[in-house]
Recover the amino acids of this structure.
């Protein structure tokens, strides 16, 4: 296979019964699937049958507002993906977890174990949690601001990497005759003392198949990009526009280079939602079917979350214009900019805006025939905007199955996506090396 | 099956390659199994083939001393048991987790999810963590004393129960036509503010199949018994002597009654280790095989942990006498009492003592033919000492397979243990009712 051109990386971002807020109202959707393990097993099997790199789950440690309007990711993603390790054999398993509302020993321990029980398929999508309401579930007086969250995240990752480096690969001797199970010299204490954490270590878990889980990072803010360039091995980003995605791509790869890292070892995966039809008209009709089922109460709550503005009293059928954002920093900057731009370049009623936003929620949307969807993927891949995509099926399992059945064969015909797995670990799928013990510490020290 | 007499409950307590410190040195033991998911899948399948109530894992969030002398429980038990949910269908899944080194929202969330993904097979063995060294992995200046740990545990459980009661069973409406996914009146906020925790809730997870995981408690100290009598639905206790076990049994059931609880709904399960042979001589030889492979360095470290006394300079072949314990409270009282009693009633050399202690580590040991082991089980079960046992195989998978193959048929012939599962949830296996929302809050309030 060495004659193959550069290969796409494709994950399935699996959100309850689909990313689209109205997916649950489609006739084919089973609303009980939200908490049904058989539903998630089925999704994992479909994704693995497509030889995707990984399945990917979000984390929301709080019940979001307007839960009456749509299902949400109701299961703890880490527990869910650990359970799915038992019914899959090759596909990567990526769970999101927060550095703000966890402790580093617990996280390092759980992900090292996941890497063992999945035989090298664990990935951790590192987030600092954007939902301010989560603070109240963890005893915090208020949700820390982004600068504080990212400072904690960086120290959290330093501790986690140190814990994952507790064990030399050959520390377990297993000498029955001599009565020596491990070589104590192969175990490294951590003794970290920092501003946020004090952790002695070592981890009680021998080094895992991948050395450590693959580190994903999601978040496109300035501190998010900085964290990603330092630590991330794969990046999930919301990029609706090709040109912006190219700028982001070059920016992050350049930053990584400045930290002494090989930019090819950071896999950039924008989100991609899609509505597929046999013809362009059918695809548009498919998207409209979803949009016709949206509930304005939900869209208004989302719009308020992103912009800080309450449009409840605005007539749904009157034109609406979202003002530009005053501050530059903050959690929802890029999505605010998006709705500002949308309503500045077109005249949209509030209802039209809400429907428009429902489809991608800030991510790139491809609506069209399988060939058209594949063409979008290839365009971004070949024009310096993406190393692949986090696929965001609007409905589950339907849209995922359609993508596997109809788009993947086109990408395979172009020799841009694997026919079968060539390795067994997530690192192998993503073309990432297994790190040596202490490797990151050396590179981080060199960069400081 | 209603004509059956009262039924035994039997769990398999699965510790790496076996509870016995020398199990790893047996010729048949695969030392790589310690972190190998296929080993644990095999154990789960053996236990499920025996129709046991549950498999049960310990929690040690710290690398213990003398790791060079023997394997330990090297994987995070929660992650491991979540992974095993995918390869089993009926057997209960009990993971130990600490209320000292976790936060209640995270624990409530993970166990509720485990109950969903296992379709009602989750159990949580609540501990306050006895390993003082764990504190240094979680930023604590020192390990809290037992009174402090148990006060935190009680509030932790109050919060967890409150979070598991966040959702009425019928809160999910799923009305596609009307656009109502959940009934907001079916969701209960918690708004807990206490001495240790401040947790708003609700949990973002709809109510799980069992309502909440089955609550196990391990710990036989005074505050441990009090916590157990208030909250526990099953109790794991170390009781080497029938008479003491009877006292413990009556004590806990009596305390539960005083809290307004039905004592039949608290299942008491002493630990039981066993060495089985075709004849009594073979069984004794089997036990001796283990004891001959013990390493005194390990036994000495354990003895120091329990008694606080360092016998490193004591000649292994000189008689030893362990003084009585001064204080009454503390973490290792019952085990200290045990070694004190052992060395007061018999003259044992230090080597003999270490070998004797290696077999059960404070638990009841049955050594003999399958009939003799079964007779011990029946005796304790019928004489008010146990509702069943946490079986502690000294080597894995061997001893577990032997128990399933040779002892279970005898118990079945006496109609004391199920031929097959009659239900699908752990509560059903244990004869426990599914709690109503708010049920514990009502009983706790009545008791105060």
């Amino acid at each position: 296979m060495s004659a193959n051109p550069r290969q796409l990386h494709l994950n399935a971002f699996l959100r309850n019964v689909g990313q689209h807020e109205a997916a649950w109202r489609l006739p084919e959707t089973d609303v009980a699937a939200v908490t049904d393990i058989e539903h998630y097993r089925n999704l994992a099997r479909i994704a693995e049958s497509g030889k995707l790199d990984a399945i990917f789950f979000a984390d929301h440690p709080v019940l979001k507002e307007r839960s009456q309007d749509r299902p949400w990711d109701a299961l703890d993603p880490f527990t869910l993906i650990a359970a799915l390790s038992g019914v899959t054999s090759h596909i990567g398993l990526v769970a999101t977890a927060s550095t703000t509302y966890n402790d580093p020993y617990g996280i390092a321990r759980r992900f090292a174990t996941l890497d063992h029980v999945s035989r090298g398929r664990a990935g951790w999508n590192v987030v600092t949690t954007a939902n301010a309401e989560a603070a109240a579930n963890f005893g915090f007086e208020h949700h820390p601001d982004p600068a504080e969250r990212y400072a904690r995240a960086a120290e959290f990752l330093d501790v986690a990497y140190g814990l994952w480096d507790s064990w030399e690969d050959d520390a377990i001797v297993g000498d029955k005759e001599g009565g020596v199970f491990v070589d104590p010299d192969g175990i490294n204490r951590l003794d970290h003392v920092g501003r946020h954490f004090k952790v002695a270590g070592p981890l009680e878990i021998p080094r895992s198949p991948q050395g450590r889980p693959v580190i994903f990072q999601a978040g496109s803010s300035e501190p998010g990009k900085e964290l990603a360039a330092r630590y991330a091995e794969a990046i999930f980003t919301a990029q609706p526009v090709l040109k912006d995605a190219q700028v982001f791509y070059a920016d992050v790869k350049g930053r990584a280079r400045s930290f002494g890292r090989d930019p090819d070892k950071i896999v950039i995966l924008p989100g991609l939602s899609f509505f597929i039809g046999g013809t362009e008209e059918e695809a548009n009709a498919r998207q409209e079917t979803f949009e016709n089922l949206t509930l304005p109460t939900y869209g208004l709550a989302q719009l308020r979350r992103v912009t800080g503005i309450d449009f409840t009293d605005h007539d749904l059928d009157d034109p609406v214009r979202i003002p530009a954002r005053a501050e530059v920093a903050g959690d929802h900057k890029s999505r605010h900019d998006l709705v500002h731009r949308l309503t500045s370049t077109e005249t949209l009623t509030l209802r039209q805006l809400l429907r428009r936003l429902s489809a991608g929620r800030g991510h790139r949307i491809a609506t069209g025939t399988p060939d058209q969807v594949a063409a979008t993927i290839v365009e971004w891949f070949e024009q310096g905007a993406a190393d692949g995509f986090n696929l965001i099926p609007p409905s589950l399992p339907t849209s995922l199955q359609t993508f596997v059945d109809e788009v993947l064969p086109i990408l395979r015909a172009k020799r841009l996506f694997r026919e079968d797995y060539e390795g067994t670990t997530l690192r192998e799928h993503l073309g990432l090396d297994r790190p040596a013990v202490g490797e990151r510490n050396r590179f981080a020290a060199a960069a400081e």
Remarks:
- The mean pLDDT of chain B is 93.
